[in-house]
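Our consortium's second objective concerns turning raw sequence data into structural hypotheses that experimental partners can test. To show how far this objective has progressed, the report includes one record in full. It was chosen at random from the queue rather than selected for favorable results. The single chain below, 693 residues long, was entered without modification.
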Amino acid sequence: MKNYLLGFCFLIGAFYLIWDQSEQQKNSDDLTHSPQNPSINTSDLNFSSIRNEKNQSAIAINSIENPSPQSALTEATEEKEDLFEGLQNEYSSLTFTSLWGGLRAIDLKKYDRLSKSFSMRQEGKPLLSIGFEKRDGSEINIFQNTKNFELNHSPESRTVSYSWVSSENIKITRKYWRDSNASYAIRHKTSIANLNNFPIQLDKVRLHLGSAFQIPRLYNPFDNSSTYLNVGYFNSGPDLAEGCSCAECSGRIDGKKEEFIQLNEMGTDGKMTPRLLSKAKWACVNNQFFVNLIRPLGEFSDVTVSGNSANTKERNSTEEILGVEGAITFPLGIIESNSTKELEFEVYLGPKDYKLLSELGAEQNKVMQFGIFWWVSEPLSYLLDLLSGIFGNYGIGIIVLTILVKLVLWPLTAQATRSQKKMQALQEPMGALREKHKGNPQKLNQEMMKFYKEHKVNPFAGCWPILIQIPIFLGMFWMLRSAAELYGQQFLWANDLSEQDHITDVYGFSANLLPILMVITQWFQMKLTPMQLGPQMSEAQRINAKMMRFMPFMFLIFLYFFSSALVLYWTVQNLMTIFQTLITKREPISQKSNKLENSKKSSSFERDSNEVPRLRNEQISDEERKHRNFLGLKLKGTYESEDLKRAYEERISNYTDAKLANMPTSKRQQALEKKEKAHKAYEFLSNLQSKET
């Protein structure tokens, strides 16, 4: 009881420190926590309407704050912009801007697999805004007069296009359309025409990937929101020997596949090192649940991906919202006289939904960032979507998925439970062996191996379920942390499975019920498999055993702040383990193994069969098992009077008067109780042996 009280006090102290840290965090400008709906509408972009003509929502920018003082991709501008909303479907609507003919906002609707609406705002430079660069990366400014493009909307053809002609007779056309069967994907084509009678050279064309900002969440000291803000790409070409501009020599992945540069990896100046790709499949900017992803249709070599931080502020607020923005640059070269060069793209603007991204192909599902356990996360994500579609709720889907995973692992965990059961029953004999050969480690190892072989136990069998559950737990963790399907999904009292279940606030601290239920189930699970703390165990083994008792409370501190979906999985997993342990413990001991064991004569605990053995092979009683276990005798088969006497004398030798006199009062009392217990065990077994003889 004293250990549990100490553990409870430490637990309260840990929560107090976390609460105190959360209060300090709220008072800082590093993170924003908003009680309002995290979806940010276009009206929050610091615009003010000045006119409305031809059914177009035409508004002007009074002043756009630079999202970051180090920002290289976002430019402040005083130029007015006209907004136009178009290409709507059941999934989303798009707000276009006349500035560079780009996209100002994507409003995602509550529909199908997305349980909550969300507005993907694009501050500063709009998404897909266009620019030109020289080979050395310096900008070619052809937008000196105006950045405003002319809108050409065709409701009949379901297209939105913008056009613009520079003073140098360069015409740029931006065309957008949406396939009838598309969800969050749109198509885009940029045409650059040379209207002159002579060629012009525009070395590179740059498209803005847009921006992504953190989604306000409840405080979590173990999960930094900046890790979800990324500029990413997928490179399917060979390695490039370009200094540190490729992923391989920069120490990240291998230069041929996906890479995601987090906000906290962009250095003190807020800029990432540009990545030069030999063959770009796609590039993106994303936060925890939503992504802007641009996939060029065609093969492009020598493509550069760049990015930087893009912090911003809400209207009438001094607190900053963390964000990132990016750009992708393609080689363009020389445009001959009276000719046109075209770039066509598929653009995905929506939730990070593994199923939808997989259907688009081109490895776009890598945006989920499942990490090294992708081979676990991907099938789990597929099964979760399948089960949730069948049962109509993701909470039920998680429960059924957990049960199915547990059933698949049932044979392995059942075998491990049986092995643990045998190991617990053999703790005392193993302790006697350690005591007998404590001065000879080599001999001890030999005897222990013989002992394990004789009793048919594997000391490592109990580790397999834990080793297998680690990748499953981490795979489930990586799958659930960015699954947009869980965003806003309700289950029981949890209003959002992607967030803490949050029943109420207690002094500014979120009160969550599900983690409490989780730790209760884990504590009960550990009580079903009690650890043997016999007198022969070393002090280190005792300390380790006691530390294991506090594991459920460590899980409480860690999982308390994570999504209710993850805690729900762990709770159901605990319940299934309890159910399996109760069933396995009731299994009878195999009589066949008893007979086979009794037939062996190589045991270090058996004598020759001619020496007065016990004449009984039947199942021993629980009381006899207890006394045998305490004296370190074999739990199965026969033994002799000499075995019993020797075991008793070895045990009593630990409690001589001289040793008792040197013990502290508390330990002396425990030693006297064990001495009395040894007397009772010897007397009981001696009487039983006399009767059977």
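The partners drew two points from this record. The longest helix spans residues 665-692. The two ends are 44 Å apart (CA to CA). Both points have been shared with the crystallography group to help prioritize constructs.
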